[in-house]
Amino acid sequence: MSSPTQAHAAPARDHARTNLDADAATRLDPEAATRLDPEAVRRPDPDAAAPLSSDASAGFAANSQPRFQTDPRFTAAERDAVYRAIHTRRDVRGEFLPDAIPDEVLARVLTAAHHAPSVGFMQPWDFIVVRSREVRAKIHADFLAAHAEAEQMFDAEKRATYRNLKLEGILESPVNICITCDRSRHGPVVIGRTHIGAMDIYSAVCAVQNLWLAARAEGLGVGWVSILHPPALREALGIPQEIIPIAYLCVGYVRDFHARPELEAAGWLKRMPLPELLHFDGWQGPADAAGQALAEAIRAVQPFPR
Question: How far apart are the first and last CA of the chain?
């Protein structure tokens, strides 16, 4: 699978293509005709190129970039690699190794997170990379306090199980990353957020998922620690009040990846059958013949080898 950091070279342009459907191009871009037909541009010397204005230069530079991906199809191996990362991703807690993460690896993972979809291309996220043992110790201390409080929220049957679960790797992992959301970025009105106000929050969560899958492809484990007091997290990391902490992640190489999610293996909960979660043409809408065929196709899908 090619590296996400390698750009595919654009195929050589066929000279004849510049003369095809000039009328259609002109309808889309009024300046296209003069770009497509050099004879339409008046110049004192036909052998000398006239200097372009700054606006024209900017337009040319923008239009010189390919509009569409030059290699949009995945090979079967590339497709399988994506599904493998999805199916073998795990919430890692107790398997972290102290090995340092090379900068080039962490750079690729963060770049993948930064290329998540976002409402109105808002890119509301920031990434706080935490390596300091002292800072991580403060956050770990808050986790212990929050964990003790959470234990009391479960019924007696589950308290013992909860108490024995390993739910973080704050100190064991070499890097922690806090992903935040700046809801004021680019002003109060954002395309796509005009009627569903939480779209920026959802966008930041997409960055979490991108990071998680990229990390899995790099052989890195990620654990999302959510048993924390937000004010304590803000204080430990100096996060301004107007910035929303979205995810506190533990990141590092691991000894092993669990075959199944740990909570599933521990009997806490089971994975729900997907066909039971399908609705058609409305909430709890029954399946017609096409819907039943889809449900059967889903039942036939085998989880990717673990």
Answer: 19
| Residue with more model confidence, 265 or 57 | 265
Task: Spell 170-192 as b/e; 16+ CB within 10 A means b.
Answer: bbbbbbbbbbbbbbebeeeebee
Half-sphere exposure of 59 (CA within 13 A, CB side): 11
Single-letter amino acid code for the residue at 101: I
CATH number of 91-261: 3.40.109.10
Q: How many CA atoms lie within 13 A of 66 on its CB side?
A: 12
Check pLDDT > 70 for residue 5.
Answer: no
Alpha carbons within 13 A on the beta-carbon side of 115: 10
What is the pTM for the complete model shown? 0.78
Instruction: Find where tokens 């530079």 sit.
Output: 61
CB of 40 within 8 A of CB of 33?
Answer: yes
In angstroms, the CA 150 to CA 61 distance is 56
Angle at 113 (CA atoms; ends 109, 117), nearest 5 degrees: 150
Largest CA distance in the chain: 90
- Angle, helices 103-114/199-217, rounded to nearest 10 degrees: 150
Enumerate the CATH 3.40.109.10 domain ranges in the chain, comma separated. Answer: 91-261
Tokens 């569409």 correspond to what residue? 68
Q: What are the φ and ψ backbone dihedral angles of 204, each rounded to 5 degrees?
A: -65, -35
Phi/psi at 225 (5° precision): -100, 115
Cα separation, 82 vs 198, whole angstroms: 28
Separation CA 158–CA 162 (nearest Å): 6
